[in-house]
Design a protein that fits this description.
Low-confidence stretches: 36-40
Structural class: alpha/beta
InterPro entries: AMP-bd_C, AMP-bd_C_sf, AMP-dep_synth/lig_dom, ANL_N_sf, ATP-dep_AMP-bd_enzyme
CATH superfamily of the largest domain: ANL, N-terminal domain
Radius of gyration: 21 Å
Distance between the termini: 50 Å
Number of domains: 2
Organism: Microcella daejeonensis
Pfam families: AMP-binding (PF00501), AMP-binding_C (PF13193)
Largest sheet: 7 strands, mixed
GO molecular function: acid-thiol ligase activity
Number of strands: 23
Shape: globular
Protein name: AMP-binding protein
CATH topology of the largest domain: Rossmann fold
Strand order of the largest sheet: 7-6-8-9-10-11-12
């Protein structure tokens, strides 16, 4: 049996909240689409009856996908988050709801019986965030951010506090927990936020797992983690997606049955130390330079720990002698020699960046993640 799929403009998050509540209760499944002024298709679509939500991925390192999630998976994700956070609360919605992190804020609000307060779209600033927080009515408060948003708020709070204005620092310090995910968060940025007294939790997950299912390296709810022989992170549990809409071949590659359980094969590499997961990079981010392997994620982590380089991205570039080489793309103008020394102090010599490309602004996907495909083309050129 099938059910209708409603394609809904995500520009009104509270309307999306109502549509998601109806979908989770057995009504039409929903796909929230960011379109701005562009009209959203209203052509009738159908999905299998067990599907309540379809999420279009950003395609940060490949072709976009349509991830089909059941109502059980969405509700299991919300329950797992509540269990990890300790108690339900009211959410500040600062993320677009056509991506899973924003949708999860809606789902958690539905599960807790609260109404999220929406931060208007656009660049976050102190006045906008303070006005939104002022509209919150519940004692226990949460929010979810991507690293770029956290960086802007930390910058503003530090500047204001240095001038004696602690309003933003105090207001954000009132959140019981701030979830930060979507991409790797540089360690220096985390340290700065913690120094402000903010309570951070780093999350790991994807649309295929109905959002973050690993908090600060540990699985939440009934999530399970295992590593393949090649070091690939695989996740299991009740929050897994059912399939990719209209793409059975990709579904078969990504979701596997093993040990009497279904697993999602991520594209990330990692390691488990005393049960704590550490993401070390992407499976496909290893290059061969001068006959030696270098993982770009390892290089990027060290680069981002250098002052002023929290936005840096490391991609593969061409070299006439060595083949592929690490290339740093950033909006800053660091000294290449100093950067090579910093990387070489931790990693083998071949991991040192070959060059730096400075840009006015990093190309971003609608989700706020760096467009690594565009950056890779820039470095290769």
């Amino acid at each position: 049996m099938s059910r209708p799929l409603s394609v809904i403009d995500s520009s009104d998050p509270l309307a999306c909240l109502l549509a998601l509540r109806e979908a989770l209760g057995g009504g039409p499944a929903v796909l929230f689409r960011g379109g701005g002024a562009n009209p959203v298709s209203t052509a009738p679509l159908e999905v299998e009856k067990r599907i309540a939500l379809v999420v279009e991925t950003s395609g940060s390192t490949g072709a976009p996908k349509r991830v089909a999630l059941s109502a059980d998976a969405v509700l299991a994700s919300a329950a797992a988050a509540d269990g990890a956070l300790g108690e339900p609360g009211q959410w500040l919605l600062a993320l677009p709801v056509h991506y899973i992190a924003g949708i999860n804020v809606l789902a958690r609000s539905i599960a807790s019986g609260t109404t999220p307060v929406v931060v208007p779209p656009g660049r976050m600033d102190a006045a906008t965030v303070l006005a939104a927080i002022d509209r919150m009515t519940e004692r226990t408060r949460y929010t979810a951010l991507v690293p770029a948003q956290l960086l802007r708020l930390v910058d503003e709070a530090e500047r204001a506090s240095a001038q004696g204005d602690h309003a933003l620092q105090t207001a954000i310090g009132g959140f019981a927990r701030i979830l930060v995910g979507g991409q790797s968060t540089p360690a220096p940025l985390i340290a700065r936020a913690l120094a402000l007294g903010w309570r951070l939790t780093r999350t790991y997950g994807s649309s295929e797992t109905c959002g973050g299912v690993v908090y600060d390296g540990r699985p939440i709810g009934q999530t399970q983690i295992r590593l393949s022989a090649e070091g690939r992170i695989e996740l299991g549990g009740p929050t897994l997606a059912e399939y990719y809409l209209g793409d059975p071949a990709r579904t078969e590659r990504a979701f596997v049955e093993a040990d009497d359980q279904r697993w999602y094969r991520t594209d990330d590499a990692g390691e488990l130390v005393d049960g704590v997961l550490r993401v070390t990079g992407r499976i496909d981010d290893t290059i061969v330079t001068g006959g030696l392997k270098v993982r770009l994620g390892d290089v990027e982590r060290i680069v981002r720990e250098q002052p002023g380089l929290t936005d840096a991205v490391v991609v593969a570039g061409h070299h006439p002698e060595w083949g592929e080489v690490p290339v740093v793309v950033t909006t800053a103008r660091p000294e290449l020699a100093a950067l090579r020394r910093a990387v070489g102090a931790v990693l083998p010599p071949e991991a040192r960046p070959d060059r730096i490309i400075t840009v006015d602004a990093l190309p971003l996907l609608p989700s706020g993640k760096p467009d690594r495909l565009a950056l890779g083309r820039r470095a290769a050129g």
